[in-house]
């Protein structure tokens, strides 16, 4: 009985190996290369939508970046400072004292930086995202930062708020997901509008 | 448009689209598995593999093929992972360590896609597309083949055979998964998912170096969701903007996760010649899924956690473009099926939200379950339900014209014991070891939940994680790999033996005393049996983890 089963298993394994090889060629090479070809031929965004300044790629509109300093809009907190070779959330549990302490610390820090009351700091400014690479902040967090960014760039708050509105990605099809402000594109626009900017 | 209205419209549209696909896709799949014609490309595959496509297999032979194919798949994938430095497009990365490659190979072959590695820093493009993505297709096709074999067990009378595994595998791959993946990949490409073969290093606007990681992502993302695999190209999985750039691609991914498991209930009804049975099974899945979605959405949107209250919203681990509604929907879809892709950190979900997605897996991956695995999982539970009902009224239980006797119940009992035993013994053993506490990413009950989640996810072949747990120790790599392997192959062999025993029987004609199994009464009965079975098995473990945390 057992020997019969083992003989059958080894015989079947030969068919299995051949099947695996054939399928690897079809599904593991043919399929992804065909999709790549279609991406090259049909759409112009299969390469991660790079953002260029003077022909030089400075990032992707899909991937968030780390910004420090008053002249920039700041992105959400990121456990790995927007390192794309280590995409990850914090994985801190909902009752973890370290997370609660981090939220308190960020609230105080952002409130001081923006000169607002701690209660006015929006949730996305206090929490890390699912990828650590979130390209967006909420419109509320962007508007909170607008006065500081305006002052640092010699722009009026109205001008900066207009730029925020212009770089807000609305809900998909008007109802999917939530609106977000693309931080990299917004910062580029601020720099381009600033007197003495490019 | 408010978040609430947007969230509700999203769910409504999802249901409409799934309903629209239900009949055409379900009936198409039924035709794929009942047709006697072979396509020309399939004949080519059979010739190259030396398979006689018209030879029928009995339960033992079918099971041997599945086991042999899985073992060959594991060895082949391990070879690619360990030896990836010799492959083209290796991104200069070294081969994967042995136990990690064993864990990963088992994980992808068993349709689990548990990941103890981070794709962007560990794997080259060839290992991803020619190794992992191939198993994404094949493991899903195996699931469908097993489901179809069990359905044939009910359909056939006085028959010694269940079909041909190689034919079922080839057809599921070439007629269902591949064409749908091509369409899905093109849609994902249009939505901005990456498909390239190069990494680019740039200086960011603020002057930091950043690598724009490329890769054949769109092609892999499509089958990853459609085949209920869930292994991310990148570590952050579907939270990564290159895998899931917009709320629209996110919606498409949720649809892809659900479409095959849902439509397969129609395939079930059509192949049985009893379509209301398929609807009844879908009804059971829908009831459990709706409760799960309602609880998770309530917990996440309402920020019912300490961190949620502190920050003003449960946005830790969630992407801005998705928000709480779309993150809760994805979490329920991915754990109710055996997908395990994530668009938000499950470790950071609220206690009630994280606990609910954990329970989704504990239900045995049947709401609506993995591709194929959901069908055979729920049919096993249906046999249990008619058995319980039979005991109540003192009649020999029957399901779909087949008598359920001691032999069938032996297989069913072993099936229902296998995964819980793997989960509870695995979790208990891990917790008893002193070094497990150091591997936990969070203190207290939540740390326990991380370990419970890991073994639940592995044994039920889901693959999502409470990611704070460091799973790279040899102990966790090996025991989780064994949980995945036994949690996949033992139930499959039992299902095939069950199918064989059913096919051998004649058909019992339905009489006035037969319990109808397509009525609301039976739907309620089946929901009850599933909930009671899960509750009795897992309540003590849940009480130590998420329930304790939610009440704290």
What does this structure look like?
- The complex is a heterodimer of chains A (198) and B (552).
- Chain A is mainly alpha-helical.
- Chain A has two domains: 1-46; 50-193, no CATH class.
- Chain A has helices spanning 2-42, 97-114, 139-152, 157-166, 183-193; strands spanning 50-53, 56-60, 136-137, 168-169, 180-182.
- In chain A, strands 3-5-4 form a three-stranded antiparallel sheet. Chain A has a two-stranded antiparallel ribbon with strand order 1-2.
- In chain A, a hairpin with a 2-residue loop joins strand 1 and strand 2 (56-60).
- In chain A, helix 3 crosses helix 4 (157-166).
- The model of chain A has no long low-confidence stretch (mean pLDDT 95).
- Chain B is 66% helix and 2% strand.
- The model of chain B has no long low-confidence stretch (mean pLDDT 97).
- The longest helix of chain B is centred in the N-terminal third of the chain and has 32 residues, at 3-34.
- Chain B has 552 residues and is an all-alpha fold.
- Chain B has a domain at 370-551.
- Chains A and B meet through helix 1, strand 2, helix 2, strand 3 and helix 5 of A and helix 1, helix 2, helix 3, helix 6 and helix 7 of B.
- Chain A: Pfam families: KdpC (PF02669).
- Chain A: Belongs to the KdpC family.
- Chain A: The chain crosses the membrane at residues 20-39.
Descriptive terms for the model:
heterodimer; A: 198 residues; mainly alpha; 2 domains; 3-stranded antiparallel sheet; two-stranded antiparallel sheet; 5 strands; 47% helix; B: 552 residues; two-stranded antiparallel ribbon; 19 helices; 4 strands; 66% helix; globular
Number of domains of chain A: 2
How much strand content do the residues of chain A show? 5-15%
Beta content of chain B comes to under 5%
The poorly predicted ranges of chain B are none
The helix/strand series of chain A, from N terminus to C terminus, equals HEEHEHHEEH
What is the number of helical segments of chain B per DSSP (H or I, 4+ residues)? 19
- Largest two-chain interface: A-B, 102 and 121 residues
- How is the largest sheet of chain B built, in terms of strand order? 1-2
**Apparent shape of chain A:** elongated
Oligomer: heterodimer
How many beta strands in the DSSP annotation of chain B?
Answer: 4
The end-to-end distance of chain B, rounded to whole angstroms, is 35 Å
Biggest sheet descriptor of chain B: 2 strands, antiparallel
Order of helices and strands of chain B: HHHHHHHEEHHHHHHHEEHHHHH
Global morphology of chain B: globular
Helix content range of the residues of chain B, please? 55-70%
Number of strands of chain A: 5
| Rg of chain B (C-alpha, Å) | 22 Å
Query: Order of strands across the biggest sheet of chain A?
Result: 3-5-4
The number of helical segments of chain A is: 5
Mean pLDDT of chain A: 95
Family (chain B): Belongs to the KdpA family.
Main location (chain B): membrane
Organism (chain B): Nocardioides alpinus
Protein name (chain B): Potassium-transporting ATPase potassium-binding subunit
């Amino acid at each position: 009985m057992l020997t019969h089963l083992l003989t059958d298993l080894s015989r079947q394994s030969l068919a299995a190996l051949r099947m695996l090889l054939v399928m690897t060629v079809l599904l593991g090479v043919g399929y992804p290369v065909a999709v790549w070809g279609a991406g090259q031929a049909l759409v112009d965004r299969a390469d991660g939508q790079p953002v260029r300044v003077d022909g030089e790629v400075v990032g992707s509109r899909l991937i968030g970046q780390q910004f420090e300093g008053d002249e920039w809009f700041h992105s959400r907190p990121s456990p790995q400072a927007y390192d794309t070779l280590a995409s990850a959330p914090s994985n801190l549990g909902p009752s973890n004292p370290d997370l609660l302490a981090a939220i308190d610390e960020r609230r105080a820090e952002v409130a001081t930086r923006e000169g607002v009351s701690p209660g006015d700091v929006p949730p996305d400014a206090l929490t890390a995202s699912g990828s650590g690479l979130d390209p967006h902040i909420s419109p509320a967090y962007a508007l909170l930062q607008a006065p500081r960014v305006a002052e640092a760039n010699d722009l009026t708050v109205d001008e900066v708020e207009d730029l925020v509105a212009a770089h807000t990605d609305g809900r998909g099809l008007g109802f999917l997901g939530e609106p977000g402000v693309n931080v990299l594109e917004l910062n580029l626009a601020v720099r381009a509008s600033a007197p003495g900017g490019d | 448009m408010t978040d609430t209205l947007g969230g509700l419209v999203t769910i409504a549209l999802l249901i409409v689209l799934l309903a629209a696909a239900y009949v055409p896709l379900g009936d198409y799949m039924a035709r794929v598995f009942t047709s006697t014609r072979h396509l020309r490309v399939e004949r080519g595959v059979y010739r190259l593999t030396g398979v006689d496509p018209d030879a029928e297999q009995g339960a033992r032979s079918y099971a041997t093929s599945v086991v042999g194919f899985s073992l060959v798949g594991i060895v082949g994938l391990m070879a690619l992972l360990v030896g990836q430095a010799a492959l083209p497009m290796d991104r200069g990365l070294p081969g994967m360590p042995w136990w990690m490659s064993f864990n990963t190979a088992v994980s992808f072959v068993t349709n689990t896609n548990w990941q103890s590695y981070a794709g962007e820093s560990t794997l080259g493009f060839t290992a991803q597309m020619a190794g992992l993505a191939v198993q994404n297709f094949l493991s899903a096709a195996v699931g469908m083949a097993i489901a179809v074999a069990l359905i044939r067990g009910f359909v056939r009378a006085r028959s010694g055979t269940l079909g041909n595994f190689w034919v079922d595998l080839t057809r599921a791959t070439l007629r269902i998964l591949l064409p749908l993946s091509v369409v899905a990949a093109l849609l994902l490409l249009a939505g901005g998912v990456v498909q390239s073969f190069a990494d680019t290093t740039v200086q960011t606007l603020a002057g930091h170096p950043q690598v724009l990681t490329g890769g054949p992502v769109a092609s892999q993302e499509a089958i990853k969701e459609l085949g209920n695999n869930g292994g991310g190209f990148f570590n952050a999985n579907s939270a990564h903007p290159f895998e899931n750039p917009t709320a629209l691609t996110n919606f498409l991914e949720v649809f892809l996760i659900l479409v095959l498991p849902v439509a397969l209930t129609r395939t079930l009804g059509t192949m049985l010649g009893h379509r209301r049975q398929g609807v009844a099974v879908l009804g059971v899945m829908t009831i459990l899924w709706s409760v799960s979605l309602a609880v998770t959405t309530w917990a996440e949107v309402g920020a019912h956690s300490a961190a949620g209250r502190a920050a003003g919203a449960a946005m830790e681990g969630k992407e801005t473009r998705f928000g709480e509604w779309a993150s809760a929907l994805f979490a329920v879809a991915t754990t109710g099926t055996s997908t395990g892709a994530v668009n938000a950190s499950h470790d950071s979900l609220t206690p009630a939200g994280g606990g609910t997605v954990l329970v989704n897996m504990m239900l045995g991956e049947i709401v609506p379950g993995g591709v194929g695995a959901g069908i055979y999982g729920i049919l096993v539970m249906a046999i249990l339900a008619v058995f319980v009902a039979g005991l109540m009224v003192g009649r020999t239980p029957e399901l779909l014209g087949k008598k359920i006797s001691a032999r069938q119940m032996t297989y069913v009992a072993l099936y229902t014991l296998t995964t819980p035993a793997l989960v509870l013994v695995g979790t208990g053993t891990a917790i008893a070891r002193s070094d497990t506490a150091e591997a936990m990413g969070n203190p207290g009950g939540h740390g326990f939940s991380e370990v419970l989640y890991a073994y639940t996810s592995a044994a039920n072949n889901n693959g999502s994680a409470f990611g704070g747990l460091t799973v790279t120790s040899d102990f966790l790599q090996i025991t989780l790999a064994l949980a995945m392997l036994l949690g996949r192959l033992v139930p499959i062999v039992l299902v095939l033996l069950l199918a064989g025993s059913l096919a051998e029987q004649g058909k019992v004609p339905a009489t006035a005393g037969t319990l109808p199994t397509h009525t609301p009464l039976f739907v309620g009965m089946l929901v009850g049996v599933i909930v009671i079975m899960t509750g009795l098995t897992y309540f003590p473990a849940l009480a130590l983890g998420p329930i304790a945390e939610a009440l704290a």
